[in-house]
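Our platform keeps sequence and structure together, in a single record for each protein. This encoding replaces a full spatial description with a residue-level series of whole-number codes. We quote a single record here, exactly as it is kept in our systems:
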Amino acid sequence: MRVTFTSAEPCALRLGGIFAGYCSRHEKFADISPADKIAAEFFPEAPDREPLSLLLDEALFSAPPEPCRVYRYEGGAHVHVAGFSGRRRGIQALSQVKACGALCTLYADGLLQANIQSKGGFFTAPLPECVRTARFLPLSACGKDWIALEGQTDGEDLYLRLFDDTTPLFEEFVLSYEGGDRLKTRRAFRDIAGHISESEWEIQDGLRLALYRVREKDGFDAEKLDARLVPLAFFQTVLAKGDFRKYLSPALLPRAESIGQYLGDFTDVCIPPSVFYLLHGETNAAGLVYPSGERLFDVRFFAAPLEDGKIANLLPVEE
């Protein structure tokens, strides 16, 4: 099987004790068998980060550990390292505040860690690897006072997690958020069309999505896309709940309402890896990513043949 490696942070990659090059968001790959149990070692460029070692065996491809994300597909898999732990220097207390009657503490222990204690309970968990700094603060929304955990990342996104006392209710990466009668969030999909969504949430058995709007970036014109990008843009628009009907041929338009159900609950869209084209030639397709377990995903490929620049059919690509 062909295994592709990427990393959120630049690092050197060693496979079976042999230097395999430098790895980042630009991929490296190797043809291996899980039965061989080859060791993969990642050495981050940042001196304050710990190296990571993995055994490329069946266990990794069925239950990947933190901080790995494994994407399985026909003919191969993609191993992504989401981040590296900081070199441990013991527990370092960073901040402590009181919010909504609870004691909220941030500390470092390899990764940033969050802790909330109150008379009603206890919560503790590491923050995502991409969060560099964070803070607790109160947030009034939907007629209630919440504990908000806001994290700064290397990019534009904020990490937002809301708690009712010590019970987590909401977790998402957002461009911005605000309280009021409803919780309001803005999210960037960073796709071909530049979709930005605006969501409003209300209380109903937890937080429920009450209003959703999405728009494309100014100046985007689907009609001017290269034919090879049309399937990718279409599936990304379905994911963003945007206006995907404009990509469909007249023959497929009557089936537009059933497309979401047909495709299922995918959470991301990707360009097919090189092994896909080795198996299927120049098929114009995109990969849809489906959660399969903790840090584990299955990728299914769908072809989208065009007629007069519009998608005429949606076909799963299988062996």
User: Anything to note?
Assistant: The CA atoms of residues 29 and 86 lie 26 Å apart. The first strand starts at residue 2 and ends at 7. The two ends are 15 Å apart (CA to CA).
